[in-house]
Amino acid sequence: MQAVLEEPMKLNAPIDDLALVHASKNGDLAAFGELVKRYDRKLLRIAQNVIQNQEDAEDAVQEAFLKAYQKLNQFQEQAKFSTWLVRITLNEAFMKLRKQRGAMERSIEDNQSDNIGTRLPVEVPDWTPGPEALYSASELREILIKSLGKLTPALKAVFVLRDMEEYSLTETAQILDLTLTAVKTRASRARLRLREELSKYFNRR
User: In the prediction, which pLDDT does 181 show?
Assistant: First the structure.
């Protein structure tokens, strides 16, 4: 009986990530190319907000896709493929930061903030100051980027995922391999520190 060869997956209709992953594992390069097209802009945006360097961010995303393809068989499908992919991208971004700074910034305060017993405000107030109407959207973005650059990578990653990319607490915890308590702690600290930084700009104005 003549063997039937598998045809490459047709990508005319929308296909979920898992089907594309399965096809990619079977050697369908077009399927993996579809995954790249589906997530490259999001991953570049995340990497750039964390690293704040366009060239390094692009390198991090390229290396993340390469590693993801090489390690597809290690993807156990217990989480979303996009969650796994963002985690790899952030790992690459942190590696870029370590090369930039010699070592990844992580203060004692950040370490302490991850403890379950750490006391937190029940509700973090709106971190954006009132007179934002004085600034154009582009000016606000530039101010936010500068303020974001003053956060440690640990806090920055949580803020980018939670407040800029709007991932849920659970998704953020899965991506960063943290507890929900640790994510809440870092998110609270990031927002409060950014509020302080942004307030400086508005007070000057």
Answer: 96
